[in-house]
């Protein structure tokens, strides 16, 4: 009986035989070894059932395709003090990789990662990894989500990322990145760009006017220039440019119908609060704190019962009028 069952299993599983030369189980054991055999992976042993089997734990999850190849791998909260385990580059069918909260992982992300041409999701968060290959995912054809937040990356954003036509969600927040923002980093509907909490300099490239950007978060960098071309962009939804060195005249800026949040606090922005802000026919979350703005604040027309909060205008040069104290000479700058 069991022999017949075994034969049935064998015949229904010719692909296992075909792919016998690539044994992802051995690759996983190599990864474990390169991580210094951490205790969290103690159930990874020779012959273990890594495809949807008993190896599933809080710290490690794997998923396999029909050929028994690992296509998703999650490693999280593992106390491994080691460089990036290069054996990961041998999991050539990987579509999704997540490494989260391996705080003591150190050194570079190796360039062999570029071999993983099936990746849709590459998510490395909360590690001590400190550099990226200069050519990262050049002309990659599938990558959709690239999340590299809260690591220790220094150097600049690899310009090669501009060559990925499918990249829709890019998150570099909370690193130590320097240099300028490359053009055309994200593509497609509702594209999002998280660059906050770095040391980026220069201007936001004008080409982002034509990229279908949904949200841009660039808070807490050293960016300069006039990014107001983004505010009236079709389908723009959220903009956070606070805590930078932007210096421009806000007075005549127009606001997109789709915009729902505009955070510009802690810059060097001058001029008046534009009329477009007050006449917007939808609610926008705003922050203009700590700039060099001046003049009478225009009164909200569509939601007069929902006045602006005073705190969003705090610490400017000479803003006045409700919700701040009245202007000395109403209608003109004091
Ligand atoms: C920034 O990254 C560090 C190191 O990974 C982490 O400890 C910290 O919580 C992160 N901060 C935020 C706001 O995510």
* Second rung of CATH, namely the architecture: Alpha-Beta Horseshoe
- Report the C-alpha radius of gyration, rounded: 26 Å
Mean pLDDT: 91
Task: Name every ligand kind in the structure.
Answer: 2-acetamido-2-deoxy-beta-D-glucopyranose
Tell me the count of domains.
1
Which CATH first-tier class would you pick?
Alpha Beta
CATH topology value: Leucine-rich repeat, LRR (right-handed beta-alpha superhelix)
Tally of separate helices: 4
Distance between the termini: 95 Å
Low-pLDDT sequence parts = 1-20
Q: Which sheet architecture does the biggest sheet show? A: 12 strands, mixed
Q: Return the structural class.
A: mainly beta
H/E element order: HHHEEEEEEEEEEEEEEHEEE
CATH superfamily: Ribonuclease Inhibitor
What helical percentage do the residues reach?
A: under 10%
Large-scale geometry: elongated
Please report the total strand number as a whole number.
17
Beta-strand portion reads 15-25%
